[in-house]
């Protein structure tokens, strides 16, 4: 199980999200929940940015697996 971490600095806040590969979908859901809450300084742009980072991470992993299998 790989442990991962994403951070976001915004308006004096530091958001730290620690997660494992197995809960990628859940952490993206958490970004959505936070963005939907008007009392939290976390918006849809933040959610999209962090979700993109997770997607990019997954894309790199898949590419590496494909390259390993083609060798």
Notes on the structure:
With 71 residues, the protein is of the alpha+beta class. The protein has one domain (3-70). Helix content is 56%, strand content 23%. The chain has helices spanning 24-36, 44-70; strands spanning 3-10, 13-20. Strand 1 and strand 2 form a beta hairpin. Helix 1 (24-36) packs antiparallel against helix 2. The chain is elongated and about 50 Å long. It starts with a strand and ends with a helix.
- Specify the structural class: alpha+beta
What share of the residues lie within helices?
55-70%
| Number of H/I helices | 2
The number of distinct β-strands equals: 2
What does the overall shape look like? elongated
Strand order across the largest sheet:
1-2
């Amino acid at each position: 199980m790989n442990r991962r971490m994403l951070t976001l600095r915004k308006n004096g806040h530091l958001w730290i999200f620690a997660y494992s590969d197995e809960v990628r979908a859940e952490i993206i859901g958490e970004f959505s929940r936070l963005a939907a809450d008007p009392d939290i300084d976390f918006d849809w742009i933040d959610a999209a940015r962090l979700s993109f980072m997770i997607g990019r991470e997954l894309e790199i992993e898949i590419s590496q697996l494909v390259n390993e299998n083609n060798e």
